């Protein structure tokens, strides 16, 4: 039954596109998620549009990092079959969904795409390596276009 999975992906891609448009038009005013006692920190930098991201580093809880790994892991085989072009679209949709689930931090991810590599390298290095191989990328940040 591949069709229900495809419908789900299409819905996810559309939702991600609308979320990106909303964040671009309105800015990201959502507070950053709270951090656990052990967390991964993402640094904030200026965006390509000239706007500055918040100057405080974003802390990602271990639970949020695990969630990202758990979302990527089942997609690896799909990305290998679909190829890097479609796989990169899937990666963008997945990262958008993860960022929305974790306090609407899409703006932070946009300002510091490398945070996805830092999070996955720390929390699931094997998944990170398999993803960059399947997507034929030097790092995951290179595949993020949002």
Describe the structure concisely.
With 146 residues, this protein is mostly helical. The chain has helices at residues 2-26, 62-72, 76-82, 84-101, 106-111, 114-123, 125-134, and strands spanning 39-42, 58-61.
Keywords:
single chain, 146 residues, mainly alpha, 5% strand, disordered N terminus
Shape annotation: globular
Instruction: Give the overall pLDDT as a whole number.
Output: 76
Class of secondary structure makeup: mainly alpha
The SSE order reads HEEHHHHHH
Your description of this structure?
The protein has 146 residues and is mainly alpha-helical. The chain has helices spanning 2-26, 62-72, 76-82, 84-101, 106-111, 114-123, 125-134; strands at 39-42, 58-61. A two-stranded antiparallel sheet has the order 1-2. Helix 2 runs antiparallel to helix 4 (84-101), helix 3 packs antiparallel against helix 4 (84-101) and helix 3 (76-82) runs parallel beside helix 7 (125-134). The radius of gyration is 15 Å and the shape is globular. The N and C termini lie far apart (30 Å).
Layout of SSEs?
Blueprint lengths: L1 H25 L12 E4 L15 E4 H11 L3 H7 L1 H18 L4 H6 L2 H10 L1 H10 L12
Antiparallel strand pairs: 1-2
